[in-house]
């Protein structure tokens, strides 16, 4: 399935049972909520999806089940976050076999690769597959920045088509547009500057709190796209305290608690993560409760 690099693409959480197995029924409850809200793609096995704790078999199951469930309505991307080039190429091959429409690719895990090593890593993956690729550029969390000069080299690979822009520098959206035009599509990856990034020209948003609040997230995107900026801002202002739960080391636990509040998820995480407790839990629940109490009624954004 061809990917249009635009719109809202949830980085979905992975659901687990109390026995630490994949909870596919609840996973599909959440997927249905995303489809009902009108999201434009699904990203599996990212940080929010607890990628580092998933086995290869579980990743393949999630891909296969999601592809079957969405049934061609929207593209399905699987995250590639590996320690070696060999394993990353294998993951890309599995993704193709399992029906994924594309890949989101992180730099090498654990080893802090240099610029040349990082470029060669991404190129090796791109040259091993026909799947379109979105590079995840998040130097804040992963300590490796993909610079514009590095993208100049990477874009020689025709299937490297997009960037998940998470440098937290909104002006980088303009720098990318000035340098590459539409050759490199931009999906903002930081919830707390998402609307600002869209207004500056980002093509889409790989979102986190969408996992709990899909309609509100898609409404922000569609309203700003239609030029109804003040309506988008109003929802975004309500949303911001919740969006801040995403830029936190406990983002998985935070967002899963929000999914519980909206009835489309559970709190189960995989160790070493543990559910929140004490003051931390109390604070997050208070943010979620206030958001639920003041939750806006969104306009009919699907028919703008």
UniProtKB/TrEMBL annotation:
The keyword Lyase applies. Keywords: Lyase. It comes from the Bacteria. GO terms for molecular function: 4-hydroxy-tetrahydrodipicolinate synthase activity. It holds the Pfam family DHDPS. Belongs to the DapA family. This is 4-hydroxy-tetrahydrodipicolinate synthase. It comes from Ulvibacter litoralis.
């Amino acid at each position: 399935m061809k990917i249009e690099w635009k719109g809202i693409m949830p980085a979905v959480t992975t659901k687990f049972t109390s026995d630490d197995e994949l909870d596919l029924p609840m996973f599909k409850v959440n997927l249905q909520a995303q489809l009902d809200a009108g999201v434009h793609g699904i990203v599996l096995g990212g940080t929010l999806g607890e990628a580092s704790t998933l086995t290869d078999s579980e990743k393949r199951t999630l891909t296969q089940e999601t592809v079957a469930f969405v049934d061609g309505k929207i593209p399905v991307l699987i995250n590639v976050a590996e320690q070696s080039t060999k394993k990353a190429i294998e993951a890309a091959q599995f993704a193709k076999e399992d029906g994924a429409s594309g890949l989101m690719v992180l730099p090498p895990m654990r080893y802090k690769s240099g610029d040349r090593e990082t470029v060669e890593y991404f190129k090796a993956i791109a040259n091993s597959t026909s799947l379109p690729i979105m590079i995840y550029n998040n130097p804040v969390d992963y300590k490796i920045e993909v610079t514009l000069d590095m993208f100049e080299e990477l874009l020689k690979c025709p299937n490297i088509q997009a960037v998940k822009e998470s440098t937290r520098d909104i002006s980088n959206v303009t720098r990318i547009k000035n340098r590459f035009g539409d050759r490199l599509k931009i999906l903002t990856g930081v919830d707390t500057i998402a609307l600002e990034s869209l207004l500056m020209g980002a093509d889409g948003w790989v979102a986190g709190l969408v996992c709990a609040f899909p309609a509100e997230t898609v409404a922000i995107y569609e309203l700003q796209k239609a030029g109804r900026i003040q309506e988008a801002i109003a929802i975004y202002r309500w949303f911001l305290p919740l969006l801040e739960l995403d830029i936190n080391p406990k983002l998985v636990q935070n967002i899963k608690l929000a999914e519980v509040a909206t009835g489309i998820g559970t709190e189960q995480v995989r160790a070493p993560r543990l559910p929140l407790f004490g003051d931390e839990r109390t604070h997050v629940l208070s943010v979620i409760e206030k958001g639920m109490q003041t939750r806006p009624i969104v306009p009919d954004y699907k028919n703008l």
